[in-house]
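Handout, section 4.2: multi-component inputs.
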Amino acid sequence: MADLSAVRADSLVKNFGDFRAVDGIDLHVRQGEIFGVLGPNGAGKTTMLRMLATLLPIDGGHAEIFGVDVRREPHRIRQLVGVTGQYASVDEDLTARENLWLFARLQGLTSTRAKTIAGDLLERFGLQEAANRPLSQFSGGMRRRLDLASSLITRPPLIFLDEPTTGLDPRTRGQMWDTIRELVTDGSTILLTTQYLDEADQLAGRVAVIDRGRKVAEDTPDALKTQVGDSTLQLRLADGADTALAADVVRRLLGEDPVLTPESGRMNIPLPDPDRAADVLIGLREAGLGISSVSVAKPTLDEVFLALTGHGADEPQMEAAR
Amino acid sequence: MTTSTATSTTATPTTRAPQRIDPSAAVARTTSRSSLQATWVQVLAMAWRALKKMRRKPEQFFDVLIQPLLFTAMFAFIFGGAISGSVSNYLPVLIPGILAQTALTVCMATGVQLREDMDKGVFDRFKSLPIARIAPLAGPMIADLIRYGIASVLTVVTGLLIGYRPGGGVLGCVGGVALTVIAGWSLAWIFTWLGTMARSAQSVQGISMMIMFPLTFLSNAFVPADTLPGWLEAFVKVNPVSHVVSAVRDLLNDGAVTAEVGWAVIGCAIVVAVFAPLAVRSYSRKM
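Output:
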């Protein structure tokens, strides 16, 4: 066990008929890290995860988890990996407590032990009060928490999280992030897929960007963002302020042209370095220009995509909409 | 020396946090398949789940309750005079036939419900867990034993109410019901296999109907086989349902464990031996 990789996948391939959903992806996840797989809908993230979790047969390539061959020893892999899906995979017809008891029992825990673990997990995920209620009364966030709790019964060393916060409100999202960080403190390795750059940024140490079944980049979130460039300073000038003069100030300070919307007094200023935001603000004040609102926007996934692939993240959807 | 180490370990601050996860230890703990005993526990756990669902959705007992009552009474009064001269003469022929038909209907429901169930997200979890692939299929089938039991008992009771007096007595009835349950459970593996193959619950329903009707009506369930044209009689004689019906008749009407009973049991065993592996294979491949 000298090899410290949790997941090692070489040129994974998955075909659905003529469609190649995963087209030769290499993946190397180290033990104890959070590795993010970033990509738009339909990029092949979930398909890749399902292959690694033995939920889909691998059509080509090779994958190992903690040195165990995924294709040859699926039963062992299932003992090492906890899977939490995009859509909560818990039993709608059972209560939260019954779900956890059932999954524990299926994994060989005695009935008493299964009860204890179910109780512990319900407490840890703040679900005690709802423990005996039917799942139809559960919110999306509660379902997701129960789903994650179900994956942790045997404390697997590797956890797959498939878009763990898609569709959750910001507060629940933050709680989910905290929980995910705790898992790593316990010694788990996490492979997570997401559509959100900020989620990858918040959680992952390294990120692979997937597009149309291929890996287009792999790096730390910071490096990825630098590749994309810059944050944008968004300004709205006070009524009556001279937008042309403001543009001159920006040009003089940064050597770049701001994008102007003169009717509403808006300016979008690309920042090579977020530090320069202050320079711009000071420059505007010295020129006697008032500002009614200001914000700094981070690059979005769409921009990352545009930079890496030359096409936007949701381009196919937009085409369909037209 | 030992005491000093003991005190030093107790002296270390105890945190509530459990031990850190050690991947290499986890890998060392893995097994390449579920043991027989573990598989049995898994099957029972899945049966428990199916029972919970039955209790929460009692409407799925409709077929089990209505069919024995309705069909027994209907068939007895409509065909009784024409086929056997009178209702009471027809009942010894009819009741075992209805038993077989009811068992097949319940089987069909097994396949349809499995298909419905497999479309749910929770089956993703079952597949991702290190459990024997047969457990999610066999669990519900064990719970279904209750449905076969209820359906068969109800059929016999309805028969008794409209004047059936089984010659086999109580033991014969118990034997007949038991054989029906065994036959139903065995044949259900065919429909379970269909359930794992078909695209939707509706297609399972459709295909099952196409199998069930010829099997029950092209058998000796409702009419004596010797009244049929020769080619049909030939089919009726090899139809496994006929053997089950004849065996149940022998048990109910004569209380006799005849060769037919033996053939029926052997037939059931063959069906399970063929279709259970097929179902498990198709289920594991479906992922």
